[in-house]
Amino acid sequence: xxxxxxxxxxxxxxxxxxxxxxxxxxxxxxxxxxxxxxxxxxxxxxxxxxxxxxxxxxxxxxxxxxxxxxxxxxxxxxxxxxxxxxxxxxxxxxxxxxxxxxxxxxxxxxxxxxxxxxxxxxxxxxxxxxxxxxxxxxxxxxxxxxxxxxxxxxxxxxxxxxxxxxxxxxxxxxxxxxxxxxxxxxxxxxxxxxxxxxxxxxxxxx
Length: 206
Hints:
Elements: E1 5-6, E2 13-15, E3 22-29, E4 32-39, H1 46-49, E5 68-71, E6 80-83, E7 86-87, E8 94-95, E9 99-103, H2 108-150, E10 168-172, E11 175-182, E12 192-199
Antiparallel strand pairs: 1-2, 2-3, 3-4, 4-9, 5-6, 7-8, 10-11, 11-12
């Protein structure tokens, strides 16, 4: 089992949650003990996932990067928030991993439950973005297949998907393939490839 990491100089102790793709830390904020729990899965603006590279790319809080916390209430009744989001400079949406703050230094089942809540919210958001990406790729593949059927586009104008290094639409044998990707949930370089294929219409396979 991973042992807690005491950062000493900041008064923050990182606590293992036992829940994949989450982390937690005990800290003292404005003299009050609190626990922050966050998702370690990188989150990008949905428009970036759909191919707009000008939109906000992945925002990542790995297990050893503790989010700042903010009190939106008064000193008598503090309301704590974890600050993981940044504003997309293109669409204005707030983008960042899921996180929450609990009063006190929680441990055991209470910590596990909080981590599961964060993990579920993060997975729901990722599934929503994946569904948006699949819908966009489906429309792209269908549009290219239609253009091939109409003769307004030829096979020679499309790249071999195996030679593509950037998301887009290409050919794989007798199929039109539209592909994109989701950020690596582990925060590395092993991005999740998402692709949609459609058969090339009759008469355009040669």
